[in-house]
Amino acid sequence: SDIEKGTYPHFMLKEIDEQPFVMRKIIQEYQDENNQIKLDQDVREAMKACDRVYIVACGTSYHAGLVGKEFIEKLAKVPVEVHVASEFSYNMPLLSEKPLFVFISQSGETADSRAVLVKIKEMGYPALTITNVPGSTLSREADYTLNLYAGPEIAVASTKAYTAQIAVLAILAVDTAQAKGIELDFDPLQELAIVANAMEVLTDQKEAIEDLARNYLETTRNAFFIGRSSDYYVCLEGALKLKEISYIQAEGFAGGELKHGTIALIEEGTPVIALATQTDVNYAIRSNVQEVAARGANAMVISMKGLEQDSDAFVLPHVHELLTPLATVVPLQLLAYYAALHRDCDVDKPRNLAKSVTVE
Ligand code: G6P
Fold first, then answer.
1. What span, in angstroms and rounded, lies between the C-alpha atoms of 92 and 96?
2. Model confidence, pTM
3. Contact 339, 215 (CB under 8 A)
């Protein structure tokens, strides 16, 4: 390919490091000369006209969709459902009167997602595709497209496309809120600039994360990620990253749900990675950490400045509470990267996986 790794040993590490630049590129592309959001008028109208948004995606893009649901519901007050494409095709939920379908796909070529797009177009419903590849199948076949501007993503494990998807979804949610006349004290363009700086701080802390990977993940068979509210969605993505490239069996859980079954798996030394970036649930997630630690877990807390405690393994720079997934995911991407590296795994081309899955 024309894309080179440069001085990087792997595309994945390069793409993790590119995230601050991708945030700045997105700000540039979605900002007008008055520092207001610039977005296709047709997309704005479609978002305003619908009574419910159906997000359809696979894998990492599905995880970005879960974060997007939070934005659109909390900011624009439009109900959102998020569906795994392969399930939606065969088991379609009851639809609202005026649905808008939003396909999230890095490649724009995923067959599972396309099958849903074909079906809902036959039914006459409007579709918006959020993709990193302009001119891709999902982009061409949908009514509207929003581009991610993340640049080519080569590593099979998606990193910069995930954060780009979340950034664009935040802009879309705020734009919809504004179109509906909802007053917000949240400027996503300004807050994304702060996120870009935070990501730079994070990508400069590789050694600290590599140490955590060594101390927590070097010999383990399994690992758990726990978090509440939006931290939970990032846990799902953190676990997927770790599984994909290190082959450690990993699961993301809502902090409160672990005790309803999975806590049975906690043994002496089982790694549990807890995310604590949300004020409302800070106390609750820390009780969950105590519950697993009391059963022998090797627990680490990744928290955010302002909510940190002395015993925390890693503290993220402060970013707006809605946008914490963009910061939190960076150390989780790096944890997965170093865990895979230490186990001599093929980081950029993990077994059994393809970058773009064009079969259903
Ligand atoms: C494949 C990749 C995943 C990706 C998923 C969805 O399974 O290995 O990393 O998240 O497809 O891809 P898309 O291009 O639709 O975002």
1. 12
2. 0.97
3. no
